[in-house]
Each structure stands twice: as structure tokens, then as C-alpha cells.
Amino acid sequence: MEPEKDQFLEDMRWTIDWAALKLLVLNCQRCSLRQGCTQVVFGAGNEQAKLLVIGEGPGADEDQQGEPFVGAAGRLLDNILQTSGFSRRSNVYIANIVKCRPPGNRVPTPEERERCLPILREQFRRLRPKIVLLLGATAIQSILGTKEPIGKVRGTWQERGGVLFMPTYHPAALLRNPNWKKDVWEDMKEVVRLYRELVDPEHFPELKL
Ligand code: URA
User: Fold this and answer.
1) 189: CA distance to ligand 1 center in Å?
2) How remote is the CA of residue 174 from the centroid of ligand 1, in Å?
3) Residue nearest (by alpha carbon) to ligand 1 atom 7
4) Whole-number Å distance between alpha carbons of 125 and 121
5) Tens-place pLDDT, residues 65-75
6) Distance between CA 60 and CA 66 in Å, rounded?
7) Is the Cβ–Cβ distance between 139 and 146 less than 8 Å?
8) Is the pTM here over 0.90, yes or no?
9) Rg for the chain (alpha carbons), in Å?
10) Average pLDDT, stretch 106-117?
11) Helix (H) or strand (E) segment spanning residue 52
């Protein structure tokens, strides 16, 4: 028997530009998360960026504002990016594993992630990033398919299909454990080093590695 055709996936594949993809995704009803949230949080940043940052899913602030990483963890993320010469306005795109806020900010289930991941794949296909920063266990496990504890994989480059992924701690975890900030700083220095090698040798000369 032929597998059932998923019209949403078909439509996504045929959209060419970001605006059409976003419109489609904003109307997504593919899982029950959409019923419990205010709006779909598509992603934000420079659509030509070579650095993609992936988080877990929208929290309360993101759900209200429709943009990823705009709450306390988001402000910390912006600081981390800024001290490495990056910003969502100029050279970074930010997206999440799931686009709708899970109730009470719980971790999205494997089924919810699976249902939502095709959207991230389409974002990935359009962006064609060279470097991806993975924030926290949900992003790391969903993308790399590893069950290794985060303390073991963070800070180690992981290659998948010619793209390099840097797993690190989620900024929300840093708010709870500020002593992990030095690890994230080491990871960001690695990202800057590779960004200079692969994307822009002149990137943020103020930072001496
Ligand atoms: N945490 C995430 O993982 N993503 C957001 O967009 C906000 C907080």
C-alpha cells in the first residue's frame, strides 16, 4: 500500500522563498501543541546567515512575542553572541526544534519533535549553514541522534553531511548554573575560530583567540 501523502510536507517542499514557508508554518496544525499555545514561533535572524543556532522550543515570552529567545535565556544568548561578534540582526539565524510552546514549558516529547522536525529541515535547506550551534540536550539529541550526556559531547565538533555542529549548554541552564558559562565561552571561541576559517577571516578581530 502507498504511504499516505502528507500535504503539509509536500507544500513545504514546493515553497521557494522564506516568506511562503513562514506563512505555511504559521498555519501549521500538525500536532496538539498548537492548541495549547498562542502562536507558532517560526524563527528569526538573517536568512543568509552561515551560523544557525538551534534551541528547544518557545517559552512563555516567545509564545507571546512570536520570536525565539526573547526572554531571560534569550537575553543571555544575545550577550553570548555579541561577545563573539554575532547577532541575530546581522549574521545568525535562530530556530527551535519545536515551533509551538509545550504546556508549562515541559520538554517536547519525541513524537512532537518528530512531527515538527521537517520544518527545521526546510529552514536548514534554505539557509545552508556552515556551522550550527546546538543549545541544550533536546537540540543535541534531536539533531545528532546521540544519548551521550551533554557534559560529554559539549565542546566537540560533530560533522553531519559536511556541516559542523557545536553542542553546548542551553542559556537557561547557564542561568541556573553560572559556573558552566566558562565552558560555553570556550565553545564559542571554537565557533569563532571555525567561522573565521570557513566564512569570514575578518570576523570580529577584537576577539583574540
Ligand atoms: N528556549 C528555547 O529553547 N528556545 C526559545 O526560543 C526560548 C527559550
Assistant:
1) 22
2) 13
3) 69
4) 6
5) 999 999 999 99
6) 10
7) no
8) yes
9) 17
10) 98
11) strand 51-55
